[in-house]
Design goal:
Elongation Factor Tu (Ef-tu), domain 3, six-stranded antiparallel beta sheet, 336 residues, 7 helices, alpha/beta, Ubiquitin-like (UB roll), 3 domains, 33% strand, Rossmann fold
Amino acid sequence: MPHQIALRFEDGLTRFIEANPNETVADAAYRQGVNIPLDCRDGACGTCKCHAESGKYEMGEYIEDALSEDEAARGYVLTCQMRARGNCVVQVPASSAVCRTQRAVLEAAVGEVRQLSPSTISLTLRDESLGKLAFLPGQYVNLQVPGTDQTRAYSFSSLVREGGEVSFLIRNVPGGLMSGFLTGQARPGDRMTLTGPLGSFYLREIERPLLLLAGGTGLAPFTAMLEKIAAEGSPHPLHLVYGVTTDADLVEMDRLEDFAARIPNFTFAACVASPESAWPRKGYVTHHIEPAHLYDGEVDVYLCGPPPMVEAVSRFIRECGVKPASFHYEKFAASA
């Protein structure tokens, strides 16, 4: 007997679907025209993470990086692994409009590959068709490594520029498939396939102060967000804390300075974890979150970085005794 699932979206709309007993909630939603943000379907990426507010369900297999033990205990689920065992209410961390967006599959040419640091590569792709890619700043696409059937997920680090041009910040992983292609083989004009947009990590309407927290190449979605804010303006304070491991990992500092000049109420701080650093701000991102940045909870927090950083920041904010008005985060792990 099918179970009724109420999908509650963050813009206030609710959509009811029916899930068969052995059908995952994600599959049931897709079958009925609701595109819950989804990527791997294997419980590995965390893209389809939602909150089960009520109801009985069972979870299939998944990895800790996608859904931590603490998150599971608080009722978070991966809808690609969730099977309802009764009627359920599930809160989807995206708007109903985003969940109606179909993925596009496009090709674009390599425009430029730049080694920003030993750890970070900037990739620019160009094609007029990219102007049709309706993504929100913060979302990502899967890029296929030319000559293989393998894909890697990367957040846009820019909006679409004139002529159909987009950029990405890519972690240079020793022995990595994409890293090897970009540093050893890629040439201007090489064609790459993009699938997306994907993900529920994106800039919402700004209604209060923002605290943006980036780790390493987790800076990418924030530079796209800041491009949009620079173009449209915002009356609310915005503060970014950007953390890296070594001095050499600091990239796009000129670009952040430019955003600070163009956005009157935007400030940022960069910090380096290595004790050997010559950078004036040392330590982790959590060392540079001040009580004033949390506005006693009247703040929207956006967090993007590797899993240990995301867990550390989430724990830090809970221990501060402050509950932000909203807390959006995305974990990423480099693929070898």
